[in-house]
Fold this sequence. Notes:
Layout: H1 8-16, H2 22-40, H3 48-62, H4 72-91, H5 103-106, H6 110-114, H7 116-130, H8 134-145, H9 150-157, H10 161-180
Amino acid sequence: xxxxxxxxxxxxxxxxxxxxxxxxxxxxxxxxxxxxxxxxxxxxxxxxxxxxxxxxxxxxxxxxxxxxxxxxxxxxxxxxxxxxxxxxxxxxxxxxxxxxxxxxxxxxxxxxxxxxxxxxxxxxxxxxxxxxxxxxxxxxxxxxxxxxxxxxxxxxxxxxxxxxxxxxxxxxxxxxxxxxxxxxxxxxx
Length: 189
């Protein structure tokens, strides 16, 4: 069983039939997406590897509830969003700017976060994101941070494509407006 040999519908059927290698194939196919979503929704507050495993356990356990196997990608994204939000709320940790951050958890962002000013500015952006409407913030993060298309964002959030685009645009406009008033962020607007 190779990744190219199965489309999403066939992959769902293979997992439900407990075919050898199907779960590993799902892991390989969806892992990059899960990581992007978790990073966009505050994985700095949690042990990313544990949360990734929880996402996939939830995915495999609940896959039988999926009504349309073609929507498996959106199903995984929705699980990742819920899991990330749950962990962020449950952890009740301070902003990472107030605590040391393990560079291995941040990968490419480690160099950026070594700079105290950049770290402070990134924390200010995250605080601004927290003040946006939840659906607007989710659409913005999925589109900008996770790099999902408007169609994928709409599917993940269970809204129309037009609503996903409006929500992401509204968050972008809100952030731009608020950042213009913030002396630390005006250089980025």
